[in-house]
Structures are given as structure tokens and as C-alpha cells.
Amino acid sequence: MPGAGKDLARRVTLRQLKIFEALARNRSVTRAAEELYLTQPTASMQVKKLADAVGMPLFEQIGRQVHLTEAGRELYETCVEIFGSLDRLEMQVSEMEGLKRGTLKMAVVTTAKYFAPHVLGHFKQKYPGIEVSLKVTNRERVLEQLALNEFDLYIMGQKPEEGIEVEAVPIAPNPLVVMAPHGHPLEDETNIPLERLIDEPFIAREAGSGIRQATERLFDAAGLQPNVIMELSSNEAIKHAVASGLGISALSLHSLTLEGSNSPVGLLDVEGFPMDRTWYAVYPRGKKLSVIAESFLEFMVEEGFNVGEQMDALLATLLKPGQGSSDGSAAKAASPAPDRS
Length: 341
Ligand code: PGA
Hints:
Layout: H1 8-11, H2 14-26, H3 29-35, H4 40-54, E1 59-62, E2 65-68, H5 70-98, E3 102-109, H6 116-126, E4 130-137, H7 139-148, E5 153-156, E6 166-173, E7 176-181, E8 201-205, H8 210-221, E9 227-232, H9 235-243, E10 249-252, E11 265-268, E12 278-284, H10 291-318
Parallel strand pairs: 3-4, 3-5, 8-9
Antiparallel strand pairs: 1-2, 5-12, 6-12, 7-10, 7-11
């Protein structure tokens, strides 16, 4: 046959390959024809044309059983690769379709409001058709919403410790720092023992807050109790109260991201701080994430690395030389490998 085995891309059709792949897999022309809703003569004729193009017999029929020749086995492997690639392409295209429009609904704890909109902004640049709804509330409310499965994803400062089973993916560091008004007498000290804080008026977040829980645990573990003079349910309100000299507080370093070196409050170098905390993206175990939610999760994990560097730079700006944690790193608070636990 002239030109046999050459220029196959032009002479062989995908339909022929599909029929041959079904034949080789089923070891039967009849079954291949049935699978592809063809008549047996049509299937046989297409496979014959394919064999002519290749220039070698592809199989031998002994009784009802089909045996592939060496060329047939090679061709079968090629078919598996080609159709595997096409399947992957099909999946990618449908994911791209899914990312063109749709909604992402998230509930996040208060401190994530300093981080999530920023990441969402970048995500929206990539996928402008996606609508985002972001509910900002405290840990207790986020846990309630998680149990009701009301949102696609949740961001919180600690993994849920009880209740429903979840997947929790570490996304970025969320260090907790002690804030004090500028000019506070402890401002220049290093490694201040925790007990020195109990004489200071302390402004606390409300019950149900993750920050409050983390701070209380630290004091409890040391057998101490902070002198809480006021409870406020907003990080911003606490920052203002501290800046006005009402007291000190423990808040996320993220709450100072916008102000940077113009921070309205100073940081105290207290033992146990900056407290390493990590944001987790959480969802109920077994929940099938939408294409959008899955993509956003990956995107957050990638952006989380920059957040670590940003936090280190902010700490270096706000703490005086010689102050801060022994390795001076906020980035270590987030695990680099996003293990789903
Ligand atoms: P919260 O959570 O808003 O409930 O205090 C924040 C955090 O845990 O960092």
C-alpha cells in the first residue's frame, strides 16, 4: 500500500482510532461495534482502513477471539494516550466554563477581613465573572454556619475542636500581638513576663471570639487573669480604644496591615507573643467543593506564602531592635505544605 505507515496524522481518523481502541479493549469486533452503536461491517471496515494506513495487520481473529499483533499493541497504547489527553482537556475546559461565572460564598472570622478581600481582589482579576459574598463574623457564628453547611468555605483562626468532622487547610500565618498606646511604659522593654500584664487595663474581644479564646488559654495556662476593663466585639474599635490610652489588648497583627509604620498603637514584646496562629480554610468533611471554591482554596494557599513575608516585614517595622520572638518569624505560623486534616 503506497505511503503505508507514513503521514499517519493525515491519514488516520479519530473515529477509526476510537473503534480500534474499543476493539482492543473488548477483544471483540462485535462488542466494540455495540459499544459505539455501529454495525459490525462498519466497525470492521474502519479498522481495515486503519490497518491499511498503518501498513501492518493490527490483530488476528482466531475463532471469536481477537489477538493484537505487536503493531496493534503499540497502536492501542497510543490510543490510550490520545483519548486520555482528550479526557483531561475536556475536564479542564469544563472547569474553565465553571470558573467563568458563579458565586463563591464564604464566612470568615473577623481578622480574616484584613486578608480575604485582598486575595479575593486578585482572584476576581483572574476570574472577573465570579460573584463573591463574604460574611464576616466571629468564631462562634462561623462554627454555627459550618454546622449548617450554609457557605462554600469558611476561614477561621483555629481548627474546630469539636462538632462535625472537617477538612482544615492551613492557608496563612495569623500572629497575635500585644498592642499598647504609644509611649506606654513597657514599650521599650524586651521579653516582658506575662504576669506584668495583669496590672494593665485590658480590653478584650467578646465571648465567642477566637482571639478571646486564644488569649484566655494563654493566661489560664499561666494561672493568671487579665484585668479586663472593657469588652468590644470589633478589632477596629479595640485598636481605637488602645490608641486613646484606655488599655492594652491582644489582637491579630493583620489589623495593622494598612497603617504599617503609621500604626496608631505600639507593640509590646511580651513572652509568648507574637503568638503563632494560622488561618485555616475549613469545610465539612465529604463536602464536594464547587470548581470555584476548589480554585479559590488553591489560590489562597499560594497567596498565603506572601502573607508570611508581609507579616515578618510588619513585625520588623513595629518592634524595636532586639524585641520579638526568638526567630523573628511570623511566616512559620503557617505550614507550607497544605495538609488536609
Ligand atoms: P474572632 O477570630 O474574630 O472570632 O476573634 C479571629 C481569629 O481567631 O483570629
